[in-house]
Q: What sequence folds into this?
């Protein structure tokens, strides 16, 4: 009778988790690399090749056909523009997160405590930029800030520092 009270395994709700082969393994930090922006160049070159092919087809087959008309030329122009944009915006990421943390620690003006780095992009050409969230080394932190570090040349683009408004009093001994 006790077996009838236990729920059947098919009655359990599914658990949302990644399979073991997809679990991130970031134990060896030195081998982890952020994806580089220069991968944008590959589809850019493909777009230019397709645009050149479409232009060739339009020029050799002429205008006014059912399959070859000004739409082919319009597609070639659009693909060419997108291809050029992809190539121009695919700049190399020269500064890793460690270098960005060093640059941000020099810019903030107080001893660096906890920090977090995130790679983002800015501007119309999607220039890689590190967003560094920093806290002071005090316990609890009295200051916090956000520093934007350029991912190509390592310069500090912008920084914002403020007194930490978070209340840590409930965690004090």
A:
């Amino acid at each position: 009778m006790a077996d009838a009270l236990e729920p059947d395994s098919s009655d359990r709700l599914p658990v949302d988790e990644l399979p073991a082969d997809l679990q991130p393994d970031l134990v060896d930090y030195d081998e982890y690399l952020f994806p580089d922006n220069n991968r944008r160049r590959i589809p850019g070159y493909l777009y230019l090749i397709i645009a050149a092919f479409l232009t060739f087809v339009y020029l050799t087959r002429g205008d006014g056909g059912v399959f070859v008309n000004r739409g082919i030329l319009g597609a070639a122009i659009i693909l060419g523009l997108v291809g050029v944009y992809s190539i121009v915006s695919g700049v190399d990421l020269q500064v890793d997160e460690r270098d960005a943390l060093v640059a941000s620690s020099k810019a903030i003006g107080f001893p660096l405590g906890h920090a977090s780095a995130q790679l983002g992009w800015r501007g119309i050409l999607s220039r890689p930029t590190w967003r560094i969230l920093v806290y002071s080394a005090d316990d609890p932190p009295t200051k916090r800030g956000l520093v934007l570090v350029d991912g190509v040349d390592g310069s500090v683009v912008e920084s914002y520092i403020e007194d930490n408004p978070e209340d840590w009093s409930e965690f004090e001994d």
